[in-house]
Amino acid sequence: MADDHVQSSGRMQAYSDAIFSIVATIMILPVAHTEIPKDKNLREVIFYQLLPKILIYILSFFVVAISWSAHVWLFQIIRHADDVTTLLNLLIMMIITFLPFTFTLMGTFPEFVLAIVLFSVCIIVLGLVQALVVLHVFRNPQTMEESIRNSENMTAVRNALLLRVLVNAILCTFAAVFAPVTSVISYVFLVMILFSPNIAVQLSKLISKCSGGRFQMSQEVVRRGKSYEMEVNKERVECYSDGVFAIVATLIILDICEKDIPSRTALKYEYKNDLVAALDHDSSVFLAYFGTFATVGLLWYIHHSLYHHLQRTSRLMTMFNNFSLAMIGGMPLAFKLTSLYNDTDFYNNERVAIQLSCVIMFLASISQLAIFVTALFRPEQDLTDSVKVGGQSHYYLLVKLLVYPTVSIIIYIISLTSDVLSVESFHVAQLGTPVLFFILWLIAVKIQRNVQEVLNPEEHPPIQEGINNENQRM
Amino acid sequence: MADDHVQSSGRMQAYSDAIFSIVATIMILPVAHTEIPKDKNLREVIFYQLLPKILIYILSFFVVAISWSAHVWLFQIIRHADDVTTLLNLLIMMIITFLPFTFTLMGTFPEFVLAIVLFSVCIIVLGLVQALVVLHVFRNPQTMEESIRNSENMTAVRNALLLRVLVNAILCTFAAVFAPVTSVISYVFLVMILFSPNIAVQLSKLISKCSGGRFQMSQEVVRRGKSYEMEVNKERVECYSDGVFAIVATLIILDICEKDIPSRTALKYEYKNDLVAALDHDSSVFLAYFGTFATVGLLWYIHHSLYHHLQRTSRLMTMFNNFSLAMIGGMPLAFKLTSLYNDTDFYNNERVAIQLSCVIMFLASISQLAIFVTALFRPEQDLTDSVKVGGQSHYYLLVKLLVYPTVSIIIYIISLTSDVLSVESFHVAQLGTPVLFFILWLIAVKIQRNVQEVLNPEEHPPIQEGINNENQRM
């Protein structure tokens, strides 16, 4: 019975995670769908046309990610989601899916008061609805997590939660008020959203102090279980990340379905009803697709291996993860550029497209490595035994995490120094990387077996079991 | 330790579910993005231009859903996913995301041999990779679910699994072979994919019999736990459904972001830098968005309430669920048509758009009702106590499930008989429906409280607890 309802609240959270991650990621499409003429200098296009859009994309990705972490923080207090909470959560989702529109509007017309106000109103309404959820849950304590229901100072917990969900709304109120005066001040407030978790913590301390203890704010809610430092729990980070990986993989095929299937008339007049010729015309697109998918898939695989060995995640690690995900969301752009410049010599555009792909791959994978390095500073709390320094899978995980940073640096350097590198060979390299991981796995199994034989020369353990132990830890 | 690895395999499955559901749903986009001139007769456009595309969409939705259920069936035998299984699963995902392309190609050029062969090759490769997973898992039995590892006849289980994952490949081999001769026979084989779960069962019985017991096929693998009749378990159906709901909700805003943000030049010359006027021009789109989101969100909410009370799901129920999801995937089309014909009088197009939306809403919601009705035939196995006939929440759930069929029929009839109905009032009605559900909840709580007072007139239980019990069951 009780389990039933954890399930119930769990499904609502998983659904919310999926929506948050998709909303964050589809913001790349206005960037990826920018019309780029084939005969222009890609380097200039990137700096003058794409870079502003990319920055807006990364900003919006972080704004959504921050809203998501507030949402996770709020819903981890709920054990049973009743109908009112579920309906309010749907309202929250409606506002979240509308965010990309207001954000794109603000990105397109940054100097218009209306654009700033519309975005701010979205965030304010979001905060107010979340506050309603807090109030509803605290009026019905039986829907709450037991640890909070039994906590000594429930009012303090409620106040902390209210402040946490309302801090963005407060910042946006200021942004909206100042918009008619000067948009610069508005943007200062809007950028502060990125630091809202920290602002909430500092504000709560300040209010507790200034009110002489009358308005107590308790952070204890976040200290139970696997989460600490106002941090979301690992399972929900995984769920959110999976959403990003899944939508990125499918956004690419979406483009192919819409653009690379010839129309019946084109087939008749351009290709004389020869479907092979028509598809061959776009063959580079398919190679680009499989190459890009292999990269996205393997980055998911590394993410999966890494998070499997994390015991908890700090705020810094989630920040690295968000940055990594934002970069992975950029893969559709890399796909588009590499498939666009597959056969052109203008301005070295082909090599520039490869270089941009390398930069995206490097930033995405180095951020994953950064998560592991951060965890190594607090191995006792953050890591499972086998990947701590000296653990049996430590080097295997480290090497996995180093593959993509290394590969992308090497390709980048080759593309700088020589012009043997074509888009085709780049994609073939992408497609070949899984083989690298398979070889890595074989080596890891081999070493593991040797170590076991050295340690227990008499025992001769069943070889399958030896492999199994290794696998289980990978 | 053991729990760790259920988690590990669980994450891979959740990720796969997300990809499957997104792939199934984005196939609506070629339909929704069909260019429809505003001044044409929508009824004719629907019958001659949209209907063939819609049929292809529904077919492809079911093909993906069937592949997904085979995938679920395969992976429920795996307890620990090792690196090889994970990498093979990524390969499966790569093929799955490529399916929409081959399917669209086949839909566009149904008479071309190449199109049939390409699609068939996709399914064949998919089957072969899944067979590799089966062989790998059975060579490493320690990665399997314990119930299967300890089963008496593992070879029979393996044979049944191999047949199940290869049956589509076999059908497609025939389709590909017959394609150069006549495409009609090919399509007969391709349509048989829709019945492949049944075909696999019948084939396995046949093979067992004909070989005189030498090739045994065991169905026992599917009879453990919550699943029966080769059926997937409830949690994965929920996960898959969530993916569809989430992507539908976000596909709509994607269109708005790409089309309804005016360019700087348009703003300058068409609207004289008046952003309010420019947005007002598209105001109907925003109303359509909020109305559609409310509908999708509430259909999720009903789905959530229904599946919360299901104890297990039969194959028929999953078929109804897939049909319901396919219809919900059609909501972006309804959104597009209603927002396109908001102010036009040509050929009653406005009313036709509303009628099509009603049909989609009706089919989506009546299929949900059909799931419940099916479950009512085997209440002991399928339903929790509170929603069985006579249970305290039986009528509440029934009324919830009846809301959308009723509302859509009423709107449809009104649109047939009078012309007072505009797209605006339709969307306002959509937006008003959540209020209906809130009122329903209030009534349910009220009744629940009265019943408790009648039953225990002396006890005077804490009222909050009374609400709580009700909530927990909803």
TrEMBL record, chains A, B:
It catalyses: H(+)(in) = H(+)(out); K(+)(in) = K(+)(out). InterPro entries: TMEM175-like. Its main location: membrane. This is Endosomal/lysosomal proton channel TMEM175. Belongs to the TMEM175 family. It holds the Pfam family TMEM175. It is found in: Membrane. The gene is LOC118411305. Signal peptide: none annotated. The lineage of its organism: Eukaryota, Metazoa, Chordata, Cephalochordata, Leptocardii. One of its GO terms (molecular function) is proton channel activity. The chain crosses the membrane at residues 12-34, 54-75, 87-106, 112-138, 184-207, 284-302, 323-341, 353-377, 397-414, 426-445. It is a multi-pass membrane protein. Keywords: Ion channel, Ion transport, Membrane, Potassium, Potassium channel, Potassium transport, Transmembrane, Transmembrane helix, Transport. The keyword Metal-binding does not apply. GO terms for cellular component: membrane. PANTHER family: ENDOSOMAL/LYSOSOMAL POTASSIUM CHANNEL TMEM175, ENDOSOMAL_LYSOSOMAL PROTON CHANNEL TMEM175.
